């Protein structure tokens, strides 16, 4: 358990960006980073591995009259760089979500779409506070905002036609949020952002409304972190693996988001592995070099220690069996065995039920494997084997042993077919399905089964 001796230290909240494909998640993250950099101050942003840190000073510079930095105890906001509810729901910290708060991006013209609904379900299930970015407000005909004005003033300055079109779209979104069980309103009418979801009309393209969004995020985080997140930021480091990557000169490394405590070079760590927890000693903690130096120097610099919340690459022996989505824990103040038990207990929460017969499932992280398993259970598709990782020759051999034809199939979520498995697949009577959207993957497989059954009749 975390001791709360340092409860006054609020750590940087971890923010995820979710929403339907093409609604503007990537553009929003780019714009937040871009306008932070163009604030021009040194240290306007810090690039992390897998995340970007925007310090409070920069946010207040961007937000102008909207923010009084002395109102905040938070150091800033750490945005996870990979957008999408897939990465959000599969990144956990001690059973909960890795991200503390979320931005749900909704295209004002398009409203709620299937992945918006999925994201809402996940946010509800994990109890994650969120803000809605009603994106692409600039596409409203007649939209003519004043440069640098807060979005509320910009909206008042619109033509009557633009105003009523935008209003109609925004109230549609507010209505859809209400159907989903959330009370929501335009953000300037919201007093308590934990009780009511603030909707921020904005444009990721022009940047209008982005300072307003950051302001609302700061307000929401400040309260949430104070109430829920008394964290001992000096204790033994805890994190979640984003990705396992081979890095020249370092071998297998794990890109990790540290959500609690401190990780130091030389620390002994326990990392969740394919077969069992890995115990190893950190050889190097790596961060990207400052932006200006990239390309002229080596890509990474070594740091002595890193405190939550941060993204870092950990180089250590024996990490090749590490699993994306698995926990990383520093062994300090406890024995390695105690930490191993903790990691095992955490992994046991992510359970995938398998049967004697069924399909083979491969996914990129533990959390996505679990999400796949849930979706398949609902569709009543049994699973023979479920594993994290790319599709290897062994998976094809296993799928071939299925004794029903429709089960001779591999469902790969966000993974690749390894080069050395290509010819095996060609020669085997095994069907491969790959997709980056879970429900599409399941639908593709169900359609295939239906066709197969129809052909047999
Ligand atoms: P993602 O799939 O949610 O990450 O969406 P992207 O950020 O890739 O955006 C999808 C498309 O919408 C791209 O062509 C963007 O240029 C466009 N787009 C994103 N935000 C805006 C916006 O605020 N206004 C307009 N007009 N287009 C936008």
UniProtKB/TrEMBL annotation:
Domain of life: Archaea
Residues that coordinate or bind GTP: 19-26, 81-85
Keywords assigned by UniProt, alphabetized: GTP-binding, Initiation factor, Nucleotide-binding, Protein biosynthesis
Gene Ontology molecular-function annotations: translation initiation factor activity
Domain Tr-type G residues, every copy: 10-226
Assigned protein family: Belongs to the TRAFAC class translation factor GTPase superfamily. Classic translation factor GTPase family. IF-2 subfamily.
Function summary: Function in general translation initiation by promoting the binding of the formylmethionine-tRNA to ribosomes. Seems to function along with eIF-2.
Name listed for the protein in its UniProt record: Probable translation initiation factor IF-2
Organism encoding this protein: Halorubrum ezzemoulense (Halorubrum chaoviator)
Range of the intact protein held here: 1 to 457 of 597
